[in-house]
Amino acid sequence: MRIGMGYDVHPLVEGRDLILGGVFIPFEKGLKGHSDADVLVHAVMDALLGAAAMGDIGKLFPDTDERYRGISSLVLLRLVGELIAQRSYRIENIDSVVVAQRPRIAPYIEQMRENIARELNIQPDRVSVKATTTEGLGFIGAGDGIAAYAVVLLA
Questions:
Q1: CB atoms < 10 A from the CB of 93, how many?
Q2: Is 64 flagged in the annotation as binding?
Q3: At a CB cut-off of 8 Å and minimum separation 6, what does 120 contact?
């Protein structure tokens, strides 16, 4: 068994779509980043790569590479899943949490779980997505960004 932990954070800015777990969420701001800046999927990818001792997404998909500009993070997740499978690991489970003051994430959680599971070729019951706020504290509480944490277990 191998355990990996991932974390990602991006600032919220105007003029960008908000994508979390591969789901478009109607909101007045989106996350700033080289790709679609999907912090949830980025945290999951880093957790998977960490568990397999394969580095991180910045190493595999550098923001200096124009091939990844604006790319869907679900495409990158699928590639990470393939790399994990090539090393003969099986994803036992993924537990994740999105930290955002706004918007409310709860209505989109089931679709996020399904998207992540589909791209990794696992059952949705192996994927947990939760949401929380910072009770108004810090840059997330001020509405300036969104973060995500993920933990995975590989066998």
A1: 14
A2: yes
A3: 77, 78, 81, 84, 91, 94, 127
Question: What string of DSSP letters covers 17-50?
Answer: --EETTEE---S-EE-SSS---HHHHHHHHHHHH
Domain ranges of the chain: 1-152
CATH fold of 1-152, please?
60s Ribosomal Protein L30; Chain: A; (3.30.1330)
Residue 95 marked ligand-binding: no
Among 55, 59, 60, 25, which residue's Cα sits nearest to residue 40? 25
132 annotated as belonging to a binding site for a ligand? yes
Beta bridge partners of 128: 95
Mean pLDDT of the chain: 97
Start-to-end CA span in the chain (Å):
5
- Per-residue pLDDT band at 15 (split at 50, 70, 90): very high
Residues in the chain: 155
Find out whether 9 is annotated in a ligand binding site.
yes
Quote the pLDDT of residue 105: 95
- Please report the pLDDT score of residue 26 as a whole number: 97
129 annotated to a ligand binding site: no
Residue 93 confidence (pLDDT)? 98
